[in-house]
Amino acid sequence: MAIRTLASRRTLGTIYQNARGLQTFSLPDLPYDYGALEPAISGEIMKLHHQKHHQTYITNYNKALEQLDEAMAKGDSSTVVKMQGSIKFNGGGHINHSIFWQNLAPVHEGGGEPPKGSLGWAIDTHFDSLETLVQKINTEGAALQGSGWVWLGLDKELKKLVVETTANQDPLVTKGASLVPLLGVDVWEHAYYLQYKNVKADYLKNIWKVINWKYASQVYEKECP
Question: Which pLDDT belongs to residue 22?
Fold first, then answer.
């Protein structure tokens, strides 16, 4: 297999290209140690979440892409259609988790520090205050039935901040092509159950202690200069 690095391992990981030109993906490195987010998120959860859950999405995503590539080459339309669900679920899982790791930072590296600059002003404009935004995200996350994500996004067309939820591993773009994710909170049980059991509200309360607003601000400033 010919290997070509097309993306940073700190975003979507290394992208590989095989002899047919098919691109596949690898697990991105975390920008911090597994235990660096304690006590908000335990090292055990982070290791399991990253090495097992995220890796599984990538493995299945690559497998689905290979099967799709083969079906396309054969003109097998039924298989092409059948693979769309797996690509959406596993590809979404890879995209969402790659964002999630960047949305977190150890306290000594700025985790939990409130947003400043243009994003801070935008939050005050659209939600009145950071506290109101956090409460809204926590309420939406706690009310989400089953598994999914709660997002702070930028609607590039309306130039407005929005809070949205997505089911399962659907990425934010499934709610609208103009939506850009700034911050995503994973509310699947695997993100918190080992530490918080069934008390999702406590997980949602404590995760803000390690939220990386610097990353969200960088994305906002890039997408809404």
Answer: 76
With 0.85 as the threshold, say if the pTM is over it.
yes
Around Cβ 33, how many Cβ atoms within 10 Å? 12
Which residue from 142, 85, 118 is spatially nearest to 224, judged by alpha carbons? 118
- Whether 142 and 168 have beta carbons less than 8 Å apart is answered as no
pLDDT for the residue numbered 16: 52
Residue type, 49: H
Three-class SS string for 150-191? Answer: EEEEEECCCCEEEEEEEECCCCHHHHCCCEEEEEEEECCHHH
- Cβ contacts of 47 within 8 Å, gap of 6 or more: 34
User: Amino acid letter at 136?
Assistant: K
Q: What span, in angstroms and rounded, lies between the C-alpha atoms of 28 and 45? A: 17
Alpha-helical (H) ranges within 75-176 are: 77-82, 84-102, 117-127, 130-143
Is the bond preceding residue 39 a cis peptide, omega within 30 degrees? yes
Confidence of residue 19 (pLDDT cuts 50, 70, 90): very low
Question: CB of 171 within 8 A of CB of 97?
Answer: no
* 115 token code pair: 């947003």
